[in-house]
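Retro notes, item 3 of 5
We never archived the inputs for the nicotinamide-adenine-dinucleotide complex last cycle. Fixing that now. Sequence and ligand:
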Amino acid sequence: MRKKILITGGAGFIGSHVVRLFVNKYPDYDIVNLDALTYAGNLENLSDIDRKPNYSFVKIDITNEAAINELFKNTIFDGVIHLAAESHVDRSIKDPLAFIRTNIIGTVNLLNAARSQWEGNYTGKRFYHISTDEVYGSLGKEGMFVETTPYDPRSPYSASKASSDHLVRAYYHTYGLPVVISNCSNNYGANQFPEKLIPLAINNIKHRKPIPIYGKGENIRDWLWVNDHARAIDVIYHQAAVGETYNIGGINEWTNIDLIRTLCEIMDRKLGRSAGESAQLITFVADRAGHDLRYAIDSSKLQRDLGWQPSLQFSEGLEKTVDWYLEDEQWLAHVTSGDYQKYYEKQYENV
Ligand code: NAD
Ligand code: TYD
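Structure as it came back at the time:
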């Protein structure tokens, strides 16, 4: 029996890797990629698989309740993997309401549509909500987030994600909706929009522009290669028990300044610059408001229960990532010029 899976946010950074993995690995699944194509959605991310017979794309905004209901009226889904979100903390500080609309109301629209389509027969169905470790708040020097750490979100972004996590769990407890949630640490890799730290720094180093470091660069993040997150999502989607939560992380903590210095060394080598040249671009700027000090995630439950492990050491992943951004010059050029937004019109002019 073919399965139909809706993946939301599939034109974004992580979503595009999840869509590619599912389309290639499961030819007997029909993968429907739903995305509003905001500034962060780029169908060029999927140009290698978008002609495959088990892939289709629908342009829908998840805040549009009528459009979501119409989709679920016309198409029966076996599962939903929900990644669509406003995802950038700095944008959430400037415009919180956009995050409330997409991350909270949009998620509820999807929960309602899945619930009414599946009501009475949840067998084989699954609503998988992709979330972040930022819902747990900020750590001091010691400790790690585990699945039972109390929620303590501190930015409009993390508060909106925490809220959506609560609503997903509420639909499980109240209506029995078969949900699964995972909370992941910072991802890096190909196709990440250059407003986030690593691709922004790569782009700026390449163009010899200042690399802005917030505060003293002492904030700590745990970094995971995006392909390893996609592998974890595959494992959790297929194997996790209904109602479960899994933390996903790289066991790979870096202060921002150490990470950027390492990136500068790699870039000097790849670009044939003298040692220390790129690091001169490092510029300390005003700190982010409410900047969380440290994230660290304990993913031992996922490793123990479902046998997932990160596949790459950070040094190797960072090299691969730099190579990708330097080799696929067109992707960065299109994204920074805004040309990627024309891809949809060109690619789908007859659709
Ligand atoms: P992204 O910003 O790169 O992509 C988000 C995608 O969602 C884009 O394609 C965008 O067009 C789409 N989208 C936004 N608003 C929409 C709407 N109203 N309707 C339909 N589509 C909409 O984000 P990402 O980094 O790929 O993150 C994906 C998911 O993973 C998010 O839920 C995020 O909270 C979560 N997450 C991200 C990270 C990370 O490090 N990037 C870590 C943990 C969890
Ligand atoms: P970011 O990539 O925005 O992810 P998040 O805020 O979700 O962790 O930022 C990663 C870290 O890098 C975070 O501590 C903020 C910092 N940062 C800078 O110092 N300079 C920048 O220009 C950006 C975008 C982030």
